[in-house]
Write a structure and sequence with these properties.
Strand order of the largest sheet: 1-2-4-3-5-6-7-8
Order of helices and strands: EEEHEHEHEHHHHEHEHH
Low-confidence stretches: 9-30
Radius of gyration: 19 Å
Strand content: 5-15%
Number of strands: 8
Mean pLDDT: 89
Shape: globular
Length: 297
């Protein structure tokens, strides 16, 4: 019998019982934590930022709720030019101004980072996809290309299951409940990989970051917000757009991706046939995003 346990065993890998792999295991993260900087935006909110690569074009990457720079970095693999990653308010080392917050606030964060770096392209993941959609309703010509990966909300609030999970995670983080955080983060990984060295490395990295930096309590109310109340506002978007969803993901329903793609003129839609895209289809996802962004105009 094999099971998931927290805290992890001393060797950093999952403790197993009975016959199984005997090779060395490691809990070391795949990517070292990068050195970031904190910038002051025109709207007065300090945001954590990481800039990699060089040359043109410049692409900004926006993460999901309770995630951050480390989660969006894989989406930039193979993307040419300069890549700008940042943490939304209430995440990482970014400031947490007094709430309540809404998607207009997140769109303002995203716009500021893009403007300060001259980014003409954007990738939004989950929460970041909602912020990107909201930004484009206000400035439909702001980007020339945009990728929406696993939008969690669009013209309606997140599913109830997602809102509950966010509330539980924020509470566990702020209570320094390591086991509670571990259980909630572990649930993000597909069952077949949940007790593997890669999953443990991911788990360790997420827990370390969340317990070190915390999560703002305002994120709980943000989970009930609607990014774009009127989808017709996206009809004026001029960017080339790719929307990526997947079936079977309760936190990121495929129907949300489909409605978003239908609202943007000429948007391309790709829906994976099972959840856990970053685990099960990582190479294809990277190639799909980079191929779309790198394609000559």
């Amino acid at each position: 019998m094999r099971d998931f346990r927290w805290p992890p065993p001393p060797d950093g890998g999952p403790r197993t019982y009975g016959p199984g792999p005997s090779g060395p295991r490691t809990g070391r993260p795949a990517l070292p934590e990068p050195e970031t900087e904190v910038i002051t935006t025109p709207h007065g909110v300090e945001l954590e930022r990481l800039v990699t690569g060089s040359g043109k074009p410049t692409t900004v990457f926006a993460h999901g709720i309770a995630h951050g720079i480390a989660t969006t970095r894989p989406l930039g693999s193979g993307v040419v030019g300069r890549k700008v990653f940042f943490q939304f308010r209430g995440h990482g080392r970014s400031a947490a101004p007094a709430g309540p917050w809404g998607y207009p606030d997140l769109a303002r964060d995203l716009r500021a980072v893009a403007d300060l770096t001259g980014a003409g392209r954007a990738v939004g993941m989950s929460l970041g996809a909602g912020a990107l959609a909201r930004l484009l309703t206000d400035s439909p010509q702001r980007f020339d290309r945009a990728v929406f990966f696993l939008p969690s909300a669009f013209d309606a609030a997140r599913p109830a299951s997602a809102r509950q999970r966010i509330a539980e995670l924020v509470t566990a983080v702020n209570d320094s409940d390591v086991s509670g955080v571990a259980e909630l983060i572990a649930a993000e990984t597909p069952v077949p990989v949940r007790n593997t060295p890669a999953a443990w490395a991911y788990l360790r990295t997420r827990i370390d970051q969340l317990l070190r930096d915390g999560l703002a309590a305002e994120l709980v109310d943000l989970a009930d917000a609607v990014p774009v109340p009127d989808p017709a506002a996206l009809a004026a978007v001029t960017a080339r757009v790719l929307v990526i969803g997947c079936v079977g993901d309760d936190l990121h329903p495929a129907e949300t991706a489909e409605r978003l793609a239908a609202a943007i003129p000429g948007a391309a839609l790709h829906v994976y046939d099972r959840p856990g895209v970053l685990w099960n289809q990582r190479t294809d996802l990277r190639q799909r995003v980079s191929g779309f962004l790198n394609e000559p105009i």
